[in-house]
Amino acid sequence: ILEIRDVTYTYPTRSHPTIEDVNLNLCLGECVLLLGPTGSGKSTLGMCLNGLIPHLLGGQFEGQVLVDGVDTRQSSVTELSTRVGLLFQDPEAQICNLYPLDELAFGCENLGLPPDEIQKRVNWIADALKINSFLTTPVQHLSLGLKQRIALGSILAMGPRILVLDEPTSNLDAGAVRSLVRIISTLRNKQGVSVLVMEHDADSFLGVADRVVVQGMLIGKTPGCEEKEFAGLAPSIHDLVTEVTRPYALPILANLDFGHVDENMPLPEGLLARMDTTDKSVSLLESLVQSDA
Fold first, then answer.
1. d(CA 91, CA 162)
2. CA-CA distances (angstroms) from residue 185 to 28, 154, 178?
3. What is the pLDDT, as a whole number, of residue 215?
4. pTM to 2 decimals?
5. Which residue from 212, 218, 186 is spatially nearest to 197, judged by alpha carbons?
6. In terms of CB atoms within 10 Å, which end of the chain has fewer, N or C?
7. Neighbours of 240 (CB within 10 A)
8. Residue 20: pLDDT above 80?
9. What is the CA 64 to chain-centroid distance, rounded?
10. Torsional sign, CA 34, 37, 43, 44
């Protein structure tokens, strides 16, 4: 449902790319956790997926992003908004209206949907996100967690099949994080929404992710790491995830389903012990569950 092919992007005011040669696929109904340190280009990648890049921000865009087989360069941001929903790291930067009720209807109104259809969608979203009692409360009086639900609701009301979350837990307390994870799990399991979570903290979404992609720096190779990519990594998979998300780690470790693994590559001992040497198809999620047991 989503294909990212060799995507490289340079902002108009910069001479070097912020992301380079990024490749990633997202299947229908799948939840993928993309891990990377702050400043590695996750937000930039997110804006490439819904057309904000290159349509609104300009710059130099190379490669291809396909959404349901449609090239984002050949589709408008308006058209893509019904296919890909992007939740910003700061929900306050995404809310345009004074009241949640107006915000939930805002995107649908811009799409020109009939009033009865808009009302139907708003009612469904309010029930699903449990925000009925806050619909007429001024947005400035809501907690950051509730603001995030409002922003998420306004996206879901437009009916996207793909949901991209940009560091969604960065400003939330533990209770709000658990609530968000439950909502994402429900959307995937009951609504068939495909979810890409871009985070620097692995813990929150490991229980719902089908795959984990770990990246160090999205902008090519980190100087000096070519011959020392796996040097010093701890044996546990949890420490592996922690290590490679630091800024000095290798550029892109792997799409960790281990479909093509070099048997001579010095992967952590604890992980190799759980891998079938003939199949090499152990999922990261299974490894994580076993390592935490």
1. 18
2. 14, 18, 11
3. 64
4. 0.71
5. 212
6. C
7. 25
8. yes
9. 18
10. negative
